[in-house]
Structure formats: structure tokens, C-alpha cells
Amino acid sequence: MVSVAVSTLGCTDIHFLEPGVEVTGEYYRNAVLCNMLLPDIRRVSGDWYIFQPDSARAHRARATVEFLERETPQFISPLLWPPNSPDSNPVDYSVLSILQEKVYKTRITDLDDFKHRIRSRTEWAKLDHAVIAAAVRQWCRRLSACVKAVRGGHFEHCF
Predict the structure, then answer these.
(1) In this predicted structure, what is the pLDDT of residue 98?
(2) CA atoms of 96 and 98, how far apart (whole Å)
(3) Does 75 have pLDDT greater than 60?
(4) Residue spans per domain, the chain
């Protein structure tokens, strides 16, 4: 599993979670947010950012929500986020699929090979930031389409 944050200002490093680790609220807060994402986000954006979690159980845990309310300048509460909607997250609806195309051009032998392709060959660093900026710009239109798609309807055709 990977964790990353993107914005029009830049991106965090790509972080790999240990294989098989159970991502509880505590693990997400302590390992992912405190040690990986938030320091990177602050390096890229300073104190000017909106943190957008998805609806994963660890992201919507009460202690995690309280932590994000204290530790981020703004964040979108899981109560305002549509459940099970990867179509609303720029990393999910655009960025990772483009990265996958680059990484999977040739056969991957194992997890270490995969990590090497992303880190050592800097596929993540070589990813054109215009792709990320376009995905972030599309975010408001996608959220509007999601709101208009009542009762869990699909809205992917709106783009």
C-alpha cells in the first residue's frame, strides 16, 4: 500500500506502508500522518493546504478526525465525503493510474523491484506536475457532479 498527497503546489514523497500491516486509526495517525504525510505536506505547502482524507475506516476514526482538526489548517471531514467514491480523489481518479502506466511498462518481478522503479528510477519524481495540477483543478467539477448524481449514481461520464 502506498500513501501520497498531491496539490497544485507540489507533491509529497511516495511512502510505502509495510506489507500486511493493519492500518488502524492509531497506525494511520502515528505512522502515516505524523511521520510521513504531514511533514511532507508542510514542506511542500507550508501552512496553506486543505487535507482531504477518504472514507477509509482509519481516516474516519474519531481520534483521527480530532487529530486532523487540531493539526491541519483545514480538512474535509469524513462526514462531508461520499463513502466509497474514489472518483472524488485526484490521486485515485488520475495520478496513480498514470504512474502505473509508467511503472508497469515492463514486467515487475517482486515488491522490491516495484519500489525500486518508483524510488530509484524516480518515476514519481519524473511525473509531469501538469498532470497533477490538471487532476486537482478537476476536483471541484467532480465534486459537483457527485452531488448531482443522486443515490450513488455514476458521474464519470460527465468529463
Answers:
(1) 83
(2) 5
(3) yes
(4) 2-158
Quick one: cell of 96? 496513480
* 96, 90 Cβ separation under 8 angstroms: no
Tell me the CA end-to-end span of the chain in Å, nearest whole number: 28
* Rounded CA separation 116/137 (Å): 30
Paired strand residues for 2: 16
Grid coordinates of 41: 505536506
Length of the chain: 159
Read off the C-alpha cell for 71: 493539526
**pTM exceeding 0.70:** yes
- What cell numbers appear for 44 in the block? 511542500
Nearest-CA neighbor of 6 among 72, 88, 90? 90
Q: What is the DSSP letter of 93?
A: I
The count of other CB atoms within 10 Å of the CB of residue 152 is: 11
Does the domain at residues 2-158 carry the CATH identifier 3.30.420.10?
Answer: yes
- Residue 126, pLDDT score: 81
